[in-house]
Amino acid sequence: MNSATRIGAYAVGLAVVFGGAAGIGKITGPVGTTAEKMASHENGGGHAGGGEGGHGGGHTAAAAHAPGGLQVSEDGYTLTPQRTTVTPGKKTDFRFTITGPDGKPVTAFKPLHGKQLHLIVARRDLAGFQHLHPTQLDGGVWSVQIKLPKAGVYRFFTDIQPTAATRQLTLGTDVFAPGDQRPTPLPEPEQVAKVDGYEVKLTGGLVPGKATELTLTVSKDGEPVTDLQPYLEAYGHLVALRQGDLAYLHVHPDGAPGDGVTKPGPGITFSAEAPSSGAYRLYLDFKHGDKVRTAEFTVHAGDARVPAQEAEPGHDDRPHTH
């Protein structure tokens, strides 16, 4: 991991990912009350107090569905990029389609937190996180201007719910940025992350097999931020990726802007469940001063300690073939 690695464009490898969850999520699928709510994705599908079309997977029994994103194709829907190689450091018009069971590009989607599709990007060493919202062109083609800062293998996740689908799906694929690349060691756990003059404090942790609360408190210049702005129908969006296989979790906080109860900061509280011991990277998107910022944390679940300088065997930045 400490020596430079030459990245080439080879076969796309599959990553195990979490199913998205509303408020609570884990690798066996979203946790909640009924499978019917998951199937309809109605009645507050995104988070407690949220409206229809919340992005995060709805509610269901844990074993109702396999984890989202285990493959590039699920329930007959397939993520099909027009290219799998991107020049690092260069802005690129990245295009892709979501193909339906009939083999044709899907053009109709249910909104998930104000957007029909969310694209999450991260390099396999958990650096280079991006949360993007592509534009749908004619014929079901999605387009987004993207810049992969450094060489490496990047995982692209799409959170979607085609109108004809019975549930939300998370599809994933690998995209390669060829060149000489030295993987970035995973930072050690810290309770405070700093970004653009803001400090975000993390309270709580991840426990394997148990839902726990995570509260992220935002301050600036030593003063609590009490006027966070709504971003995609919430005061915060939290993505967690597990080191090694990039297992994926996207949750939203309790409450919603304008519900008469939820305060716009300084604290944003989430509930999440880690599937196993190990190291996770958390990414919090929050909006203040008309700008979206991302605070990042490393969290260890359980007693296991994954060395920051090492990745699990077979899951480094080299292309993978299965």
Question: Your description of this structure?
Answer:
There is one protein chain. With 322 residues, the protein is mainly β. It is 2% helix and 36% strand. It contains one helix and 20 strands. The chain has one helix at 35-40, and strands at residues 5-7, 73-74, 77-81, 92-99, 118-123, 130-132, 135-136, 141-146, 152-160, 169-177, 179-181, 192-195, 198-203, 211-220, 223-224, 237-242, 248-251, 267-273, 278-288, 291-301. The strands form five sheets. Strands 2-3-4-8-7 form a five-stranded antiparallel beta sheet, with no helix packed on it. Strands 12, 13, 14, 15 and 18 form a five-stranded antiparallel beta sheet that branches. A four-stranded antiparallel beta sheet has the order 6-5-9-10, with no helix packed on it. β2 (73-74) and β3 form a beta hairpin. The two termini are 21 Å apart. Mean pLDDT is 78; it is low at 1-67 and 304-322.
